[in-house]
Amino acid sequence: MNLNLSVIGKLKKGPERDLFDIYRDRISKVGGSLHIGPLILNEMNESQASKPAQRMDEEAEMLLAKVTAGEPVIALDERGKSLTSTAFSDYLLKQRDDGARTLNFVIGGPDGHGSRIKNEAAMKLSLSQMTLTHGFARILLVEQIYRALTILLDHPYHRQ
Questions:
Q1: Per mean pLDDT, which range of 10-19, 42-51, 106-115, 127-136 is the poorest?
Q2: Inter-axis angle of helices 134-152 and 85-97, nearest 10
Q3: What share of the chain is helix, strand, coil (3-state, %, to 5)?
Q4: Is 150 left (phi over 0), alpha (psi -120 to 50) or beta?
Q5: Which homologous superfamily does the CATH classification assign to the domain defined by 2-152?
Q6: pTM for this one?
C-alpha cells in the first residue's frame, strides 16, 4: 500500500525539512517488508483567494487532485479522531489488508479543510488538540507512520 501525503504549503530547507526527510526515509526502509510505503509528498502553494471559505475550497480541490481516485483519504484535523500509536498501526494494517492500494493523507492550509475534503474523508485524524504548525504536523505524522510500522514489525523503537 502506497502512502501519499498532500499538503498546502512548502517546508523550506532546514531542520524541519531534514527531520521530515529522516522519517520518510525510515518509512521506505522498514515499510517494504509490510508492503506499506513509500511515502510520496505533494506540496502545493496556498490559495490567494481573498475569502477564507474560497481559499479552503480552492485548496481542497488542489489536494484532491493529488489523491488516488477511489482510495481512502485521511484528513488531518484538530477536531478529528485521536488514536493511540497502536490503534493507528492497526488502522494502517486494516487499510492494507482491506485492499487499499494508496492511503492518502491531506493537510489543509491555515484556514483548514474545504467542505469537499470534510465530506469525502474516510477519517478525520487529530494529531493533537493543540494547534501545531504545519511543519510540526507533517513531522509528527511521518514519525507516527514510522512508529506504526515498527509496532507492526515488533521492533523495539516503540516500547510500551
A1: 127-136
A2: 70
A3: 45, 20, 35
A4: alpha
A5: SPOUT methyltransferase, trefoil knot domain (3.40.1280.10)
A6: 0.94
Nearest to 110 by CA among 8, 26, 5, 2: 8
Asked whether the predicted pLDDT for residue 160 surpasses 80, the reply is no
Amino acid at 5: L
pLDDT at residue 69, rounded to an integer? 87
Q: State the cell numbers at 38.
A: 513509500
Q: Indicate the residue type of 67.
A: V
H or E element, residue 103: strand 102-107
Which amino acid is located at 28 in the chain? Answer: S
Q: Tell me the average pLDDT of the chain.
A: 94
In angstroms, rounded to a whole number, what is the distance separating the alpha carbons of residues 99 and 34? Answer: 13
Q: What nine digits make up the cell of 142?
A: 511521518
| Average pLDDT of the residues in 95-110 | 96
Burial bucket for residue 48 (CB in 10 Å: 0-12, 13-18, 19+): exposed
